[in-house]
Design brief:
Blueprint lengths: L10 E6 L10 H12 L3 H15 L6 H17 L4 H15 L5 H12 L3 E9 H10 L4 E10 L2 E8 L4 H11 L2 E10 L5 H4 L4 E5 L3 H10 L2 E6 L2 E8 L2 E4 L1
Parallel strand pairs: 1-2, 1-5, 2-3, 5-6, 6-7
Antiparallel strand pairs: 3-4, 7-8, 8-9
Helix pairs in contact: 1-3, 1-4, 2-3, 4-6
Length: 244
């Protein structure tokens, strides 16, 4: 556990991915499910179900990526047909259901570091409306997500992907809030988190994808796996990982 910090000086930070890292599911997938079920285009809903089935059957190595791309395409297609009010209702329902469905390791680390005076950041590809609610609920200090632009209460179809380059987003936060990398943490679960993890002193690959695990092995990053009610902390030792 880190020692108590002097918050009058530059503060160290901890940065977290959200989907699959804190929340046990993907928030935008959950919103897409709500929107697809309410939409009259049953063919679109069925196509997503088939893509998800292929992923769950582990049909091939890229089945999850294909499913994820199909969800994003459907999500953005439906979004253009909705009012902002209708979308916000779906967001409220998803957050209410999923906000406490979190990983124990990540939840407890957030609470521990917050108590020690760390500045907490969330960087996610999910829509800003979703990330804001999670950030508020878990008392993060700042966050960035994807903004879908609005005009007259409707979505325009344009988006600003604030977390497209997570390292760039993190560097902006460091400068904006006068943060120090000394003692810093980052937690992520996929290859998109690698640039963010590479910046901090204490990178943690949490339930990593194959690509992230390979990078973690090369860089000797800590690997944490949480399954059921057991947390496995793995640390690099020579050419293999051992339970910490």
């Amino acid at each position: 556990m880190p020692s108590t910090l002097n918050t009058n000086s530059a503060r160290p930070f901890a940065v977290f991915d959200i989907d699959g890292t804190l929340i046990r599911w993907q928030l935008y997938h959950a919103v897409a499910d709500v929107l697809l079920k309410a939409d009259t285009n049953t063919e679109l809903y069925d196509s997503i179900r088939q893509a998800r089935k292929k992923w769950k059957q582990r049909s091939h190595a890229t089945s999850f990526r294909e499913y994820e791309n199909a969800v994003v395409d459907a999500y953005e297609s439906i979004l253009k047909t909705l009012s902002v009010e209708e979308f916000n209702q779906a967001v409220d329902a998803v957050i209410d259901e999923h906000k406490d469905q979190v990983y124990t390791f990540t939840r407890d680390l957030i609470a521990e570091l917050k108590e020690q005076g760390y500045f907490l950041l969330a960087i996610s590809g999910s829509q800003t409306e979703l990330i804001k609610k999670i950030a508020d609920y878990y008392d993060f200090d700042d966050f960035v997500g994807t903004d879908y632009t609005q005009d007259s209460g409707r979505f325009t179809g344009q988006k600003i992907h604030g977390a497209a380059q997570k390292d760039a987003a993190l560097k902006e936060f460091i400068q904006k809030h006068n943060l120090t990398q000394a003692g810093s943490y980052a937690v992520g679960d996929s290859e998109s988190d690698i640039p963010m993890l590479a910046i901090v002193e204490n990178p943690i690959a949490f339930n990593p994808t194959k690509a992230l695990l390979e990078t973690a092995q090369k860089q000797s990053w800590q690997v944490v796996v949480e399954r059921k009610n057991v947390i496995y902390k793995l640390e690099k030792h020579n050419d293999s990982y051992l339970l910490a």
